[in-house]
């Protein structure tokens, strides 16, 4: 990797290798908003994770540290899904609210190719089913999905809209 955005989910790029990371507590819009040694990704500052791959037992999301959520009584690695929240019920069913954003477990569904829009390349967006679908940019500039309309996503600082599969 050369950029943090080339690493999937919660991973960041360090010495050209994607490594597991955890939020360091700060919010950011660009790299300079984070402390030295931290990375700006998904609007929050990240730091290299300590023991990120050690699974822990849990009964609730609160039992899990940093970027993990509770699934089947085990803390599993998760990824932010670019939705703000203040409690778990603000997130889609099964997802967790941590650090003010919703998080989804990674790798639980066999056919999921994406968790967040950043996982999709080129002119595609991640839909709710975990598929990268064709999309087109609108003329609206954005910093986050909040700047875009309903069913639109912010990508490359422009609002994008899914291209419908329906034909007339």
From TrEMBL:
Pfam families given in the database record: DUF7107 (PF23416)
Domain spans labelled DUF7107: 1-47, 57-104, 113-161
Alphabetical list of InterPro entries matching this protein: DUF7107
Record protein name field: DUF7107 domain-containing protein
UniProt source species: Trichinella nativa
